[in-house]
Amino acid sequence: MPAPARPHRPAEPAGTDVLVVGAGLAGLHVATLLARQGHDVLLVDRRTTLAGAIRTTGIFVRKTLDDFPLPEEHLGPPIRRVLLYPPGMGRPVSLVSDRDEYRVGDMARLYEAAAVVAVDAGVRLALGTRYAGRQGDTFRLTGRDGPAEVRARFVVGADGARSSVARDLGLDRNRHLLIGAEEVFQVPPNDEPPTFHCVLDPSLAPGYLAWVVHDGQHAHVGVAGYADRFPEGLRRAVERFSASAPGLAGVERPEEVERRGGPIPVGGVLRRISCAEGLLVGDAAGAVSPLTAGGLDPCLRLSELAAPVLDDALRSGKPDALTHYSGAGLRGSFRGRLSLRRALSHVRTPVATTAAFTLLRTPLGRAAAGRILFGDRSLPGSPAPHAGAARN
Ligand SMILES: Cc1cc2nc3c(=O)[nH]c(=O)nc-3n(C[C@H](O)[C@H](O)[C@H](O)COP(=O)(O)OP(=O)(O)OC[C@H]3O[C@@H](n4cnc5c(N)ncnc54)[C@H](O)[C@@H]3O)c2cc1C
Prior knowledge:
Blueprint: E1 14-21, H1 25-36, E2 41-45, E3 59-61, H2 62-67, E4 81-85, E5 93-96, E6 102-104, H3 107-121, E7 124-127, E8 130-135, E9 138-143, E10 146-157, H4 164-169, E11 177-186, E12 195-199, E13 210-214, E14 218-225, H5 234-244, E15 258-265, E16 274-275, E17 278-280, H6 296-316, H7 327-330, H8 335-346, H9 350-360, H10 363-374
Parallel strand pairs: 1-2, 1-10, 2-7, 4-12, 10-17
Antiparallel strand pairs: 3-6, 4-5, 8-9, 9-10, 11-14, 11-15, 12-13, 13-14, 16-17
Helix pairs in contact: 1-3, 1-6
Bound molecules: flavin-adenine dinucleotide.
């Protein structure tokens, strides 16, 4: 007689203290900080390698370089010079700082270095693993070996501008977005100092700018703006710009270039970025300067704010601790830049931009531009001593 069939009992999902979704800079950093506090952290990313599908130019501003010990060997030469071009690209306004202002990161190497630091700290990193949804404290993941479930006391949405975790937790979501794309290729050194060329022309980059960063090692040639205002689409806009981009005299664009691109949230930090089940960091939380569209500094700083809040909730067993993590107060640091972003979004014609350049050429205009480009403003949230983003 055959043995009676045992009732099928699905295996208990594996458990973790914190599931971090997204191994961009924000997710890698918050995961590392939590693991260093002794918590069990599972960090998942749908990318199969952190060296691929990069969505950023990787310009780090001085304040980030001062506060976070990024590995020197993965940073390009310092940049002090910015050239601002009006429509038509004639007669740029030149701004030169007496300090090193920017460095372009080799992002593939920086992500990989940060992943090594995370794993050394005890983070369990699962690449090629997509977050696919949530039911209570159980999260569905689709990995290399098929679907799996994991239970977590808290989830962190570090999954970028269009965060699924934000949606599933019922938190605020980014509604005000630009899109950007660029081509990246190696360049031979030239006689020019490393330069950030910015073209302000709404017919080319509606609502934002087109750029060339030439630091003597790589060129990044890109365009960003409001998606619905590119008459022929973003890709075509990059091609058009690339054909006449400034700062590339004598540079031959190779046949094969690396292409990067993605959405950029510019509505300021979202208000509701936490609940009893988890919280958001980085682009998922809208932590990007609405004016400059810089998100690398704010994403590191917001992770610095998020980690102690999660640590507190895990140790005390009181999920209420997470309610202290709110974007409402942080929005204040973006108020001025939000107003300027709104103003910029209304400049729709090259004629209006050209007129604005008349102001930009005055001492007052130059001083204002210098404050935006070389200013020290950022989110609160300085790293704890020895809390490096990718080292230590
Ligand atoms: C073209 C462009 C150029 C930019 N240039 C600069 C710059 O020079 N300087 C600057 O300061 N800022 C720049 N920004 C903004 C900056 O890159 C971002 O603000 C920053 O990288 C955000 O980091 P993050 O970790 O929050 O998100 P991301 O780096 O976007 O990381 C999110 C991660 O989540 C993963 N993910 C998403 N969904 C899932 C899922 N369902 N399951 C598993 N994994 C998932 C993704 O694969 C990704 O790795 C740029 C943005 C763009 C689009």
